[in-house]
Amino acid sequence: xKKLHKITALILILILTAAxxxxxxxxxxxxxxxxxxxxxxxxxxxxxxxxxxMGAIAAGKEFNVDIEYDGPTNEKDIDGQISMVRDAIDExxxxxxxxxxxxxxxxxxxxxxxxxxxPVIIIDSNxxxxxxxxxxxxxxxxxxxxxxxxxIDKVGENCKIAVMSFVKGTATAVQREEGFFDKIKxxxxxxxxxxxxxxxxxxIAQQLTREVVAANPDIDAIVCLNAYxxxxxxxxxxxxxxxxxxxxxxxxSTPEEISFMEKDVIxxxxxxxxxxxxxxxxxxALDAINNIKIPxxxxxxxxxxxxxxxxxxxxxxxxxxxxx
Amino acid sequence: MRxxxxxVLRKAPKAVRRSFRISSIQSIITLSFSAVIxxxxxxxxIGLYSSFSENxxxxxxxxxxxxxxxxTINLENYLKTMMEISDLIRTxxxxxxxxxxxxxxxxxxxxxxxxxxIVTVAIYTGNGNxxxxxxxxxxxxxxxxxxxxxxxxxxxxxxxxxxxxxxVQRLFEGRRxxxxxxxxxxxxxxxxxxxxxxAMVDMNFSVIEELCSRVxxxxxxxxxxxxxxxxxxxxxxxxxxxxxxxxxxxxxxxEREQGSFVDDxxxxxxxxxxxxxxYSDWKMVGVSYVDELFENQRDFxxxxxxxxxxxxxxxxxxxxxxxxKISKPIKRLENQMNRVEKGDxxxxxxEVKGEDEVKRLTKAFNLMIARIKQLMNQIISEQEEKRKSxxxxxxxxxxxxxxxxxxxxxxxxxxxxxxxxxxxMTAALARFFRISISKGNEIIDVADEIEHARSYLVIQxxxxxxxxxxxxxxxxxxxxHETLKLVLQPIIENAIYHGINKIQEKGEIKIxxxxxNEQLIFRVSDNGFGIxxxxxxxxxxxxxxxxxxxxxxxxxxxxxxxxxxxxxxGVDIESEIEVGTTxxxxxxxxxxxxxxxxxxxx
Lengths: 324, 602
Prior knowledge:
The complex is a heterodimer.
Chain A: H1 2-32, E1 36-40, H2 48-63, E2 66-70, H3 78-91, E3 95-98, H4 107-115, E4 120-123, E5 134-137, H5 140-155, E6 159-165, H6 171-184, E7 190-197, H7 202-215, E8 221-224, H8 227-239, E9 247-251, H9 255-262, E10 268-271, H10 274-289, E11 297-299, E12 303-306, H11 313-319
Parallel strand pairs in A: 1-2, 1-3, 3-4, 4-5, 5-11, 6-7, 6-8, 8-9, 9-10
Antiparallel strand pairs in A: 10-12
Chain B: H1 2-10, H2 14-19, H3 25-92, H4 98-114, E1 118-124, E2 130-134, H5 149-156, E3 162-168, E4 178-190, E5 193-204, H6 205-214, E6 222-227, E7 232-234, H7 238-242, H8 250-255, E8 259-265, E9 268-276, E10 282-289, H9 290-293, H10 295-341, H11 356-415, H12 419-437, E11 443-445, H13 446-463, E12 468-474, E13 482-484, H14 488-499, E14 507-516, E15 519-526, H15 533-541, H16 552-565, E16 570-576, E17 580-588, H17 597-601
Parallel strand pairs in B: 12-14
Antiparallel strand pairs in B: 1-2, 1-5, 3-4, 4-5, 6-7, 6-10, 8-9, 9-10, 11-13, 14-15, 15-17, 16-17
Helix pairs in contact in B: 3-10, 11-12, 12-13, 14-16
């Protein structure tokens, strides 16, 4: 009987050891199951997209997922971005956060990624596809309206202006124009002298501004719909010594634009929230992986800043993103 | 325990109960053993789990505090550096002479070269003019300190160390670094007047950020710094908080003292640890998620569950094994006892083996069986004795009656002067009794038995006045054997009284003795009235009575043979009404001790 008890004890110890080993081995497998979310942006540069990256990293840390960041060196390198998306599919990442550099050309490869079973979240610039899980970005119509509001605030209800758009017919340009004109239609005193397209090149914007100011010496303000247009216009106005005379309502907050605003060349800027795009892109990608319902479109919002409010604590980080 | 188990199991479905006999020792042991151990295991498991989880929160909080202690010291050192520099400026700013200013500038250049984390040192006059900057750059003409709150506060209270939350430095044209500033008033003699100036030490904010982000409170936990008004100095998700995507329990934190507290924040349980930072009114706050800390606990839980499942399965198997081990010898004993129960007492002593208790039980059982067997044998022999004495008594009853009749016949013959008849009959009677007694032996030679029968027939033939004839035919071989005595006489008596006596014509009695099929056969046949078949049946079934009726003698002989030789021997009768009766007495062959040679000579 005593012998039997000894055998019993021995068997029990063996079983416990086996159980222990079983548990520790399952722990190891759990460790390996960290999710990876790939963020592909339009372009790797140290301002706007770097802040998107920061937002993605913040979400990655908060939700305990690995973030891979990629993007072509040039915004116009659409094929480069397509091949990056394809690499991500081959790599088998758990989800894709994409800022589409082209409204049409990225559709097939993004749908391919979707077909491969990974959630695809589009940020900043939308894609012409209904199959994507979500679009997270600035509500450009609303941003356009804010440009209009700021124009009335800084210049007044009766003024002659030019509008510096970027690429005719692109989705964001059309939406910002729509919002802006929707706002100013309430103010009959606002007279639009010219509708200009700088093709997203500062030099062209600078040239166009020179021309429009020369043609219309009584012009009160130029409303710019993107960063390139704003910078080019500001250079032209500073160069023409028309600072304060021809006011600029601009878009985005590159260091050059900030510098111009501090010198009163630019009166106000409508800024976006790239940090939130990166953060929410990752957050919703993770939700989609976990089959949590996510909204089809998310507006990350836009703010109007001017020289007076840009140094407020809540705006400082938006205007001067600090990048390691 | 047993009763409780029974109670529980009574409620179990009948089918289960039928398949598992609850009242058996094995099932009781299995169930109680399993129940007790499983209960104990579950209690230990729960105990371990609860003590573990109680400790876990406390441990987490204290480890968070330890981690943060180090971070706080680092941050304090960082602030102290700024204070030391401001002290240095304050003590060296004796006057505003150009030489002194140059010395100060040189000293600051050296300090800044040594301390990479100091971005700028600037000295402003009371009017807000820049007196000195190191390193020197083009100052931004658009920027005036006069309107800034910190400048006013510094001038108003020059002794205090005033820390400014992280902000964008606007001092220089085109340079917008993130800095943390410390401002200090300076007492300066300027152009012969006492003035209060301000010194500003700007340190690279990324140092604070690096310092805080380096601290790890689990993979999701983080550290942030707020001032006493709830302004965020540093927060990893500052942007999210400003844009309303995130909330932080800052209001609660600024009301609390140092220490830790656990709360549910936006559906997540987290441990918040607060540390005051010396030299400033800042607080460092550590946030760690209980959920994450308890990932270990989840592992522990599943570990405990694994062990419990393993343990329970094992305990059940072990208890089944153990109980069968215990109950097996009892079952074996039970099986053997079943045989006894069915009447088989011939099992000689059960094998005494197994556990002590079972051994004792087996021994006791063996003892009991032996005693029962002994008692049974005793009863059997007593019964036999009793019956033998009954038969003897019966036999004794026959003889006086017969003797009386015979003596009556002798007297009658004597009166009729039949002397030969008298002597013949008296001699026969003498022989008859001699053999009847035969020194008290029950077993006699066949020759004696024949002689006994013959003597009886002689007497009866005289008494019945030659109403019958008889023949005795004995196989030579038969003489060499022994027989139970007085088996023939009752049969012959029966043949005379109930066979020959009832017919008018002369009777014939034929006695044959022979060996057949290894048996000694005495055959008595008569041509008497015969026995009715229904009467024939009764002969061997009826109880022996004192009343002298047909078959009493016959049955007597049958019983005696069976008692002596065994049940396969005895008497059988064939009879036909008005034809006659044949009675066969079958006994085993028992040769005489002296080979039967004496018989021939007698």
